[in-house]
Amino acid sequence: MILLDGPIGTELLARGVPTPIPLWSAWALKHRPEVVAQIHADYAAAGATVHTANTFRTKARQTPEWEDLARTAVGLCRDAVPSTHRVAGSVAPLEDCYRPDLSPPGAAIEHRALIEVLVDAGVDLVLCETFPHVGEGLGAVEQAVATGVETWASFTAGPDTELLTPAEIGDACLRARDLGASAVLVNCIPASQTLRYVSAIARVGLPFGAYANAGHVDEAMGWAPAPQGPELYAELAETWVAEGASILGACCGTGPRHVAALAGRLG
User: Taking 90 as the threshold, does the pLDDT of residue 193 lie above it?
Assistant: First the structure.
């Protein structure tokens, strides 16, 4: 079992750090780097062994400082976690991860620029994540695989599971496998709705898994204080493991307590 960390963006908000658009979570790399480092350390203490650097929004179209911020993000993550843990570089949609209609033509070229910086900064793997546009996601995967660094692919159906069907994500993961991805995942889907997507990627023939979001606030799994939330999340994660998932983590609205619950329940 590989245990991933949890979100940076919503965890920054939970700790009182703003995430203004367009930089979102990357704003903290320049203004509150100590909080970013502490979040990484907290996930390590909770049991995570693969940590995603805060490069979700370090892109040229967001800021001319994108390369410096990307390198800062990798360095903060690397320094905050044990040397035996792995650091992943996040490569996310160029525009909105819930608006596949905004995916620009020629996106792979922009993704390549970030991927090259991440590889040069020393990431252990590239995580192409939260893609609702299959074509853009696969373009990022292809560029990452071309560097020779281990590449994981993760697709999302969005918070209302309306952007991609389980079958579409299953097919996307098959195509990612054929491009050279070494693991496939689903993420940023409500935990209560994730099982059918996990089932759809179980047939790909690669290590697979999920890191879900906390769902609607009424589900009491995250976003606001909910003592039972981490255990509810871990209970759902057990159903993903029953399907064969071996890579687990957490996404928007969760936090270190959810990762600790996964570690405690699943090892």
Answer: yes
Distance, in Å, from the CA atom of 234 to the CA atom of 25, rounded to the nearest integer, reads 25
Rounded CA gap, 220 and 113, in Å?
Answer: 39
The gap between the terminal CA atoms of the chain, to the nearest Å, is: 7
Predicted model pTM: 0.96
Sorted by where each starts, the structural domains of the chain and their CATH numbers stand as 2-266 (3.20.20.330)
CA distances to 29, 70, 157, 169, 202 from 240, in Å: 33, 32, 17, 16, 10
The Cβ of residue 238 has, within 10 Å, a number of other Cβ atoms equal to 13
Which residues have a Cβ under 8 Å from the Cβ of 114 and sit 6 or more positions away?
Answer: 55, 58, 59, 66, 70, 89, 91
Cα separation, 25 vs 66, in Å, equals: 13
Pairwise CA distance, residues 6 & 263, whole Å? 12
State the DSSP code for 236.
Answer: H
Place of tokens 């370090």: 58
User: How confident is residue 52, by pLDDT bands cut at 50, 70 and 90?
Assistant: very high
What is the structure's pLDDT at 267? 72
Tokens of 210: 């999920």
- Side chain identity, residue 48: A
Left, alpha or beta for 224 (phi > 0: left; psi -120 to 50: alpha)?
A: beta
Identify the residue whose tokens are 């907290």.
42
Give 128-184 as a DSSP string.
Answer: EEEESSHHHHHHHHHHHHHTTSEEEEEE--TTTT-SS-HHHHHHHHHHHHHHT-SEE
Tokens describing residue 72:
């800062």
